[in-house]
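Example (one chain per record):
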Amino acid sequence: MKKYIYILLFFNTLMYGQSGSIKGMIKEKGQPVAFASILIKPVNQSVTSDENGSYEIKNLPYGNYEVTESFVGFTTVTKKIAITKPDPAAINITMTED
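Predicted structure:
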């Protein structure tokens, strides 16, 4: 029985060890953009930038993602990024008005 528990714990560690995060800043003309929407595809997770224009999405499995930022009155921006290690992948976005 103990053998099976150790095997289960080993695979559990491997599964949770294979994730990273995406973080960054949203700015327009050097100023932070608060409360912009950030969507991560294909997992369809979303967050909103804070009052400093910062955002972070944690616990994403390793892989390729599209980060789409949108805010009323600004052009929607989409960038691609790969998560290949536990360190946060940084993607900063500069917005332009429509």
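Caption: The mean pLDDT is 88.
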